[in-house]
Amino acid sequence: MDTLYDLLGALPRDDAEGLRTAFRRAVKSTHPDLKPGDPDAALKFRQIVRANEILGDPEQRAAYDHLLALAHIEKDPAAAHPVAARVYRLASGVMALAGVSIVAAGGYLLLMHMSMAFAPANNADATTRASVNGATVGLADSRGPADEVTTIAKKLESRIPSEALVPRAIPVVRVESIPPLNFGAPLGGG
């Protein structure tokens, strides 16, 4: 919707002289005698003359300016419901903060997961398993059937948690338990 100021081509802060100058320019551009081919020229001319009458009277101009201010306030939904607008801004800020926090926490957890995947194996876990495997080999040599040894090894594994800090032990390997390596025919004929 055009305001009376828009019809004249003036600004609301213009004084009486500025309004008179804007009125003269608007009348020259829309006068029906100067634009005989334009069917809307007479209507536009009458609207410009009426706008000049209203804005030229200080009381009518003050009332019109007040109505314009009220219309501007009605257009702004935040001004109509200031509490609702404040709650909306607060809720939007909280939701944005929650989203950023979730993304940051997810990134941190992903980084920790990735660093654990590429980290060297846990020494305590490897040592525990080596100790259990060494005990299994020693039991197999000294006690008897392999089934009994397997059962004992499983019991040992279930009793020792993998996270336990066990001092690093070097597994004892007996030379008799290593199979001979075959590299092919002996050198030097045969």
Describe the fold and architecture.
Helix content is 68%, strand content 0%. With 190 residues, it is mainly alpha-helical. The protein has three domains: 4-75, Orthogonal Bundle (Helix Hairpins), CATH 1.10.287.110; 80-118; 123-176. The longest helix has 37 residues, at 82-118. It is rod-shaped. Mean pLDDT is 76; it is low at 135-141.
The CATH architecture name of the largest domain reads: Orthogonal Bundle
What does the largest sheet look like? Answer: none
Poorly predicted runs = 135-141
Q: What level of helicity do the residues show?
A: 55-70%
Tell me the span between the first and last alpha carbons. Answer: 112 Å
Q: Helix count, per DSSP?
A: 8
Subunit arrangement of the protein? single chain
Coarse shape: rod-shaped
- Class from secondary-structure proportions: mainly alpha
CATH fold title of the largest domain: Helix Hairpins
If you average the pLDDT, what whole number results? 76
Radius of gyration (CA) equals: 47 Å
